[in-house]
Structures are given as structure tokens and as C-alpha cells.
Amino acid sequence: MGATRIRTGGCACGQLTFEARGEPKRVGLCHCMTCRKISGAPFNAYVIYPRDEVTVSGEFRGWSATPESERCFCVVCGSQVFDRDSDTEIEIKLGAFDEPDLFTPTYEAWARRREHWLCTPDLESFPENRGS
């Protein structure tokens, strides 16, 4: 049996870090207005892990965009690192991992808000939230 893969990452200043063990549940893009505004970009790319497979170290703060989610950021540099969307999952920003090119999104949420120039031909597309 092989060793569990551990992937690391964190914020821009290095104060807030994480270790993610194993493989993610899913990888996606989100075009909702909250993701657009917090990132300053036309979409957000994220990796979903079971919460018990991720260890977070360092100080962070969070705020709630909806009653079921908390957007978490570094208290020093303000980097958006992860979201806690439920008691069972954690959504880690794809750009927060230490290595590039680890994951490929398989779906996009809130596609009705996607910029017209953005082409996402191989992704399963949801007009709003995944599962809506």
C-alpha cells in the first residue's frame, strides 16, 4: 500500500499554512459574484477536500457570505486561502498550493455569470450552484 500524498500551501506571507492529505473530492471553478469580488478575478478555482484531511496552521479570520459558509484569510497579508462550506468539507484556493499544475477542474458553478470571452469546453457546467 502506497503512502498518502501530502500537498502543502498557504498564504503569500507564509504565516497561514495547510497540509492536505490524500486526493480531493472534486476540483472546480466558480463564477459567482462573491468569488469574483473576493478574488478580484472573473472566477475562483478551488479544490474540495474532506475537512478531516486538511490541517491548518497559523492565524486566520473568516467572514460569512452565507449562513453555511465562512471565507477564511490570513490576518497578516489578507490572502484568501480557504473556505469552510460545511462541517465536512474545506474549499482550498487552487492558487494557495505550493506547487502549480496539481489539479484540473472538472466542473464550473454559476456559469450564467461567466465572462463571455472565457472558454471552458471540457467542464461540466452548472448555471448556478452545483446540484441546483
Automatic annotation (TrEMBL):
Matching InterPro entries: CENP-V/GFA, Mss4-like_sf
Signal peptide stretch: none
Keywords, comma-separated and alphabetical: Lyase, Metal-binding, Zinc
UniProt keyword Metal-binding present: yes
PROSITE patterns reported in the protein's UniProt record: CENP_V_GFA
Domain CENP-V/GFA: 7-108
One Pfam family per UniProt: GFA
UniProt record similarity statement: Belongs to the Gfa family.
Protein's UniProt name: GFA family protein
Species: Microvirga terrae
Organism ancestry: Bacteria, Pseudomonadati, Pseudomonadota, Alphaproteobacteria, Hyphomicrobiales
